[in-house]
Amino acid sequence: MSRVYVCNCFGVTEAQVKQHAEKGACTPRQIASACKAGTDCGSCVRRIQALLGRGAHPGRELVGQTEQAGSVLADLKDAA
């Protein structure tokens, strides 16, 4: 089994990040507290976000949801 390193600075593997996530870490900061990944050069933070199921720009997801909600409200107004 090969090890896929997420954080080369501290030698943290993808499996380790996933283990910390299973134990409740749900943000890159919580992962950093658990194993230091992302606290030196920071180049692994986006990969950590991806492993946690968050995009590099989580606000973009909210923009899409806001636009969708506005469309639904417009449809309701038209129906009334």
Automatic annotation (TrEMBL):
<dbReference type="InterPro" id="IPR052371">
    <property type="entry name" value="BFD-associated_ferredoxin"/>
</dbReference>
<dbReference type="GO" id="GO:0046872">
    <property type="term" value="F:metal ion binding"/>
</dbReference>
<dbReference type="InterPro" id="IPR007419">
    <property type="entry name" value="BFD-like_2Fe2S-bd_dom"/>
</dbReference>
<keyword id="KW-0813">Transport</keyword>
<comment type="similarity">
    <text>Belongs to the Bfd family.</text>
</comment>
<keyword id="KW-0001">2Fe-2S</keyword>
<dbReference type="Pfam" id="PF04324">
    <property type="entry name" value="Fer2_BFD"/>
</dbReference>
<keyword id="KW-0479">Metal-binding</keyword>
<keyword id="KW-0411">Iron-sulfur</keyword>
<keyword id="KW-0249">Electron transport</keyword>
<feature type="domain" description="BFD-like [2Fe-2S]-binding">
    <location>
        <begin position="5"/>
        <end position="53"/>
    </location>
</feature>
<keyword id="KW-0408">Iron</keyword>
<protein>
    <recommendedName>
        <fullName>Bacterioferritin-associated ferredoxin</fullName>
    </recommendedName>
</protein>
<dbReference type="GO" id="GO:0051537">
    <property type="term" value="F:2 iron, 2 sulfur cluster binding"/>
</dbReference>
<dbReference type="InterPro" id="IPR041854">
    <property type="entry name" value="BFD-like_2Fe2S-bd_dom_sf"/>
</dbReference>
